[in-house]
Amino acid sequence: MSDTRQDSPPRTTFTQKLGLWGYKLLCGVLRITNIKLVATFGRGIGYLVWAAMPSRRRIVARNLRITVDPTMRADKLGPMVRRNMVRTCMNLACSLKTGQMTDKEEQKSVRLVGADTFEQCGSNGHTAICCIPHAGNWEILARIRSHFPKVEHYGSMYRRMSNPLLEELVYRSRTAYGCEMFSKEDGLRAVLKLARTGGLLGVLSDQFTQEGIYIPYFGKTTGVTPLPALLYKRCKGKGHLISVFTRNTGLGRWDAELGRLIELPEGCDSLEEITMHVNRALEKCQSENILDGFWMHHRWKCTANFAPKDMFHREMIAQYGKLPFRMIVCMPEDFNEALYTIPALRVLKNSRPDAQLTILCPQEQQEFWSSAPELITNVCTTDGKTDVLRQLDADEIYKDGPFDILFMFSKSKKMFRKLKALMPIYTCGFEDSGFKLRTRYKIEHTGSPRNRAEDYLANFKRFHRLDAAEVEGLYAPLCTGNAAQACYIAPFSTLGKADSWSEDKWKELVAQLQQPVSLLALQQDREQAEAMAARLGIPCVITTPHELAQHVGPATQIYAVDGLLPHLAAAAGATCTVLMAGRLAERHGICLGDGHKHVCNHMPCHPCHRKDCDMQPHCTEDITVEQMLGKS
């Protein structure tokens, strides 16, 4: 037996000593208690945990939807959650008893299946890499060492406990029957030595790891350890991959399935390919009795750092992946501000092959976002007649499985509380929102003003390692609008009366354009727009945000005051010249498309961000038609 732990004595506290004494007392009680009584007690604890911990129920429900059926609803899901939590607590309670069992108790409680194959694969210089899922009572696998006398080395990987005193006691309990334990914290040298010399080595292979290989497990991509594949390759042709698991067959009784070889096809040599076959084997094992799985923790995690794209085996995701990586983006209520998120949405969509975006927005924005299905899969409204949670619960959206991450760009606390019920694993948003977010974005003040869209991109790079430079067409228009050549003036702003230009200047502009010109306005400005168009003697086009692309496109030139309309027009491919009064062009200028021009008069009060202006003269009065036309 080899001890791979460090020799330096652990520093202990009273709390750690108290934990040790409590554990020793528990072990003493378990040693004289029948395994069936322990199992019954564990089941009782399971019912209490199920009743008292709704957050754990939601975690189990999420995992079962992924492993069983993403469309499964509460009527079927609820009983499965309860049964799984009860069985899990029973298995955990019995795992404490496992190390205290006598040989007679072990023979009555554990039945070995496939033991001959198991032993043969780890004998005569060969190494069996045992891929173990978190299912059943996996502590049994350390207890059954005595059944395999022909195997020279019998070991397992494990993670150290934070309490060094408790760690010492548990370590000695696990190694008492000849099982060698290798701590992940000590590195892989001793483990690789065992792989080369031969024996049986267990690895809990279904543990999430951020640094692992990202491939599908039960059809949903997640971080998977490549350790079994790495050890297999180090065996130099004398290695065998075996899926090993324990299955509960009754009160205090288990089957240990030991003889299921994982067959690799010819030419399967990469870590990704080998790990994918390990995953498939573990899926099959757990699917036989899904309720034995330890589903009370987040198996399919999402963290601040998205997995690097070069770690995705795209062919395997395409072949085995059935559930997307689901992101909710709750849009700002201000439509103009929401448009600045378009480059960020493209970065999210490009972040991984299985990315899916669901947009939550006010009704005013719904049709606009629905016009980009290649970027956005689902659009729901936050202020419609139907509650947003009921919309997200619709079959068409529900079928793709649970959500993974929430980007909260709205500042509605009420909406945030609602969305937390969906239990996205990770939440992000700007720090001034007042929410308790996992990642809190900051607006950093740089040496020179930057476009509002850059705030989103800078935070994505800082917190999620998502590089906007890798996305092609980052600032391209969202859609291609009307291809007909056209010229418009848009004299009305959604920002208020402070962003305006005198009607005489507009009349002079129309006269100098020397081409047919129409007045373009949104529905809320219909009355005054039609009256002004009549005075100027030009046609008037009234539109809505989602219908704007029917009138403007790549061959359209628009002269407008600052506000929503020119930003929407740019999203459809139009070229805009924008008169900016209350806002700074470098900060709030159009972010999509090319060739736009922003005209402003830098007075001491600029930018003021006011809806009304009582300054005389108005800051736009000195802006000439020649400046708008680019002639001066």
Structure description:
The chain has 632 residues and is an alpha/beta fold. Helix content is 38%, strand content 19%. The strands form four sheets. Strands 1-9-8-2-5-3-4 form a seven-stranded mixed β-sheet, sandwiched between helices. Strands 12-11-10-13-14-15 form a six-stranded parallel β-sheet. Helix 1 (14-31) packs parallel to helix 8 (164-175), helix 3 packs across helix 4 and helix 14 runs parallel beside helix 19 (452-464). The longest helix is centred in the N-terminal third of the chain and has 25 residues, at 74-98. The chain is elongated.
List keywords for this structure.
38% helix; 632 residues; 19% strand; alpha/beta; 21 strands; 6-stranded parallel beta sheet; 7-stranded mixed beta sheet; single chain
Report the radius of gyration as a whole number of Å: 32 Å
Strand order of the largest sheet: 1-9-8-2-5-3-4
The computed structural class is: alpha/beta
Q: What proportion of the residues is helical, as a percent range?
A: 25-40%
The proportion of residues in beta strands is 15-25%
Main β sheet profile: 7 strands, mixed
Shape label: elongated
Number of strands: 21
Q: How many DSSP helices?
A: 24
Average pLDDT: 90
- End-to-end CA span: 87 Å
- The parts where pLDDT drops under 50 for at least 5 residues are none
